[in-house]
Design brief:
The complex is a heterodimer of chains A (about 375) and B (about 260). With about 375 residues, chain A is of the alpha/beta class. Chain A is about 50% helix and about 10% strand. Chain A has 15 helices and eight strands. Chain A starts with 5 loop residues before the first helix and ends with a helix. Chain B has about 260 residues and is of the alpha/beta class. Chain B has a domain at about 1-80 and about 240-255: Nucleotidyltransferase, domain 5, CATH 3.30.420. Chain B has helices spanning about 35-50, 80-90, 130-140, 145-150, 165-175, 180-200, 220-230, 240-255; strands at about 1-10, 10-20, 20-30, 55-60, 75, 95-100, 105-110, 115-120, 210, 230-235. Chain B has a five-stranded mixed sheet with strand order 3-2-1-4-5. The longest helix of chain B is centred in the last third of the chain and has 20 residues, at about 180-200. Chain B is globular. The model of chain B has no long low-confidence stretch (mean pLDDT about 90). Classes of the chains: A alpha/beta (about 375), B alpha/beta (about 260). The structure holds iron/sulfur cluster (SF4) (2 copies). Chain B: GO terms for molecular function: benzoyl-CoA reductase activity; iron-sulfur cluster binding; metal ion binding.
């Protein structure tokens, strides 16, 4: 029982490639982003398309390892591999790249990637509520805006930004609505499908169309839920996934969980809910750049220190989605999430009183059977 | 009632028949086909006990080969089977450490035998039976002799965790004229430390229950006790703890249906 609209999403990635190539032919501009800290509003306000670039597949990792250390997060290697092999049409289409100083691996990789295409790196404060952090991040917003204006020879007006903020908030709201369908028990959609649809949306060139697609899917799934349709049985353990970003090609843990009988209902990671939890303040009396800075600075990514926000978000989602267990996924060599796992374990087990499991893996299939044992044992633990 | 637990590990296959409260068991090497090993060992034990296959009420499979077994009623992970078996053999819960041929695990169980949390070693072989096998081969001794050779010796420091590097470390120690038995003691300590490094996060626990093939090595048991600072118990049937746990699950499930 799969939502009909999923078929559209399945084809979307290829379709989007054509759309973006056409857009390029028409002289439209494209900016590629890697991370949820990228303020897409400024890109849109500059009259350009913003696309999320690929970094969730295993294929280009080997090529990346020619330049990068082997013992590095697969997300970084995959992103870089796509960039140097020319296999990602979105990367090829991008006129400019924007990145942030998040984790060490990424920021050093960006230095190498910056040799391939013009890249702007935003200097992210490492602590959201430290003194001066907001001012500094607002400054970075201005720097990025000025860079876009200069590169594209355009003028970004306040009005453009306000319009883009409204649009992006609408997109966030649509995605929030889609995420919320899994609150039904049992969930009417698989975690894999939810992930694929949210992830594919990132490649959508036309924001309005993308919002409509997400809303249509949400409406269809809501209707399925109302009819009591679900791919799961009522007793399928409900799982919250937290940790590193997951996308198409790197969904193996989600797949394993669902193959083993669980239903992944909540994605706390930044490929899921993390970046949606907070909208940009639309208050017309507020400085737009500060409004943007506030939103993005408060994303509870593990590269922030401390990162209390992640605990709060996990707690909130665990409750709202009535989960039975938390799985914390760390990509190999991601130090920030890996170290944070200790705090998350403690919080989930002692404060939320929920079973917790931490997994560390990469994009390869080499450990699938070992992971399967862990996943199954975890589900047995939940089911008692 | 008769129920069966079949534990197909990477090295050996263990089958337990629970005939009312009596435990019958058989251990055979797994060889190259987990499927055949599971099936043959099961039928061999049935024949020994004089029990017809149709008289077995329920069969639970576990271990890495559990998915390939065609004749079982249900597969349960080794984590839960080991916990269940260990708790049955020892009682009172505790921290179960199972070192098998290919992997090692630490499982925290409560007084009722319920699994609270668990962890397993990562991809590499450090701290597993395989590590010991490679080292024994490098030293030209049989794995079964290791414990006696190491008893009462001065453990030499083995620094490498990686099996390949540890092997060359052992060879260079030999070349330098170090005593084989001190090297073996060092290898044992390194296994115990490695495993304890993984398991210690579950402390405090009253006792450690040591199961799996490596638990038969009394010297590793002593080293582990040194690390743990709590009693380490090796139940008599430790080697079949997983299969026993599976048979106990089978009994519970048979009673339900
Ligand atoms: S985890 Fe952090 S650094 Fe990585 S993509 Fe998400 S927000 Fe960016
Ligand atoms: S998963 Fe971790 S190491 Fe990889 S890019 Fe994100 S923050 Fe960096």
């Amino acid at each position: 029982m799969r939502p009909e609209s999923m078929k559209i999403f399945d084809d979307l990635r290829n379709l989007n490639v054509l759309t973006i190539q056409n857009a390029k032919k028409n002289g439209e501009k494209v900016v590629g982003c890697y991370c949820t800290y990228s303020p897409q509003e400024l890109i849109l306000a500059a009259g350009a398309h913003s696309v999320t670039l690929c970094g969730t597949r295993q294929e280009p990792v080997a090529a990346a390892e020619r330049d990068l250390p082997r013992n590095l997060c697969p997300l970084i290697k995959s992103s870089y591999g796509f960039a140097i092999t020319g296999k990602c049409p979105y990367f090829e289409a991008a006129d400019l790249l924007v990145a942030e100083t998040t984790c060490d691996g990424k920021k050093k990789m960006y230095e190498l990637m910056g040799k391939i295409k013009p890249m702007h790196v935003m200097n992210l404060p490492q602590s959201a509520d430290s003194e001066g952090a907001l001012e500094q991040w607002t400054q970075e917003m201005h720097r990025f805006k000025a860079w876009l204006e200069q590169k594209f020879a355009v003028q970004i007006t306040e009005e453009d930004i306000r319009k883009a903020i409204k649009l992006m908030n609408r997109e966030r709201n649509a995605l929030r609505r889609l995420h919320a369908v899994t609150k039904f028990k049992p969930s009417p959609i698989t975690g894999v499908d939810l992930l694929v649809s949210v992830w594919t949306k990132g490649f959508n060139v036309n924001k309005e169309e993308g919002i409509k697609l997400v809303e249509d899917l949400a409406a269809e799934v809501e209707a399925m839920a109302a009819r009591g349709e679900s791919p799961f049985t009522a007793d399928a353990p409900r799982i919250l996934l937290t940790g590193c970003p997951v996308g198409f090609g790197s969904e193996k843990v989600v797949r394993l969980l669902e193959e083993s009988g669980a239903s992944v209902v909540a994605f706390e990671n930044c490929s899921g809910y993390k970046s949606l939890d907070r909208l940009v303040d639309e208050d017309p009396n507020k400085d737009v750049m500060v409004a943007l800075a506030e939103k993005y600075l408060n994303i509870p990514c593990s590269c922030m220190t401390p990162n209390q926000g992640r605990l709060e978000l996990i707690g909130k989602l665990a409750k709202e989605y009535e989960v039975d267990g938390v799985v914390d996924l760390t990509w190999q060599a991601c130090h920030t999430y890996n170290v944070e796992a200790f705090v998350i374990r403690d919080y989930v087990q002692k404060q939320l009183n929920l079973p917790y499991m931490h997994l560390e893996t990469d994009y390869s299939e080499s450990d699938v059977e070992q992971l399967r044992v862990r996943v199954q044992a975890f589900l047995e633990l939940i089911q008692g | 009632m008769i129920t069966a637990g079949i534990d197909v590990g990477s090295v050996s296959t263990k089958v337990v028949l629970l005939v009312d409260n009596e435990i019958k068991y058989l251990v055979r090497p797994t060889g190259w086909s987990p499927r055949d090993a599971g099936e043959q060992t099961y039928h061999e034990l049935l024949a020994q006990v004089g029990c017809k296959p149709e008289n077995v009420a329920y069969r639970v499979g576990t271990g890495y080969g559990r998915i390939s077994l065609g004749f079982i009623d249900k597969a349960v992970t080794e984590i839960h089977c080991h916990a269940r078996g260990a708790n049955y053999l020892v009682g009172r819960g505790g921290l179960v450490i199972d070192i098998g041929g290919q992997d090692s695990k630490a499982i925290l169980i409560n007084q009722q035998g319920k699994v609270i949390d668990f962890t397993m070693n990562d991809k590499c072989a450090a701290g597993t039976g395989r590590f010991l096998q490679v080292m024994a081969a490098a030293l030209g001794v049989d794995v079964s002799e290791l414990a006696d050779l190491a008893a009462g010796r001065n453990p030499l420091e083995i620094n490498s965790m990686c099996t390949v590097f540890a092997e060359s470390e052992v060879i260079s120690l030999l070349a330098k004229g170090a005593d084989k038995r001190d090297i073996i003691a060092g290898i044992h300590r390194s296994v115990a430390r490695r495993v304890w490094g993984m398991a210690s996060r579950f402390m405090p626990a009253e006792q450690v229950i040591f199961t799996g093939g490596v638990a038969r090595n009394h010297h590793i048991k002593d080293q582990l006790a040194r690390e743990a600072g709590v009693p380490v118990i090796v139940p008599e049937l430790s080697q079949v703890a997983g299969a026993l746990g599976a048979a106990l699950y089978a009994r519970e499930l048979a009673e339900k249906c």
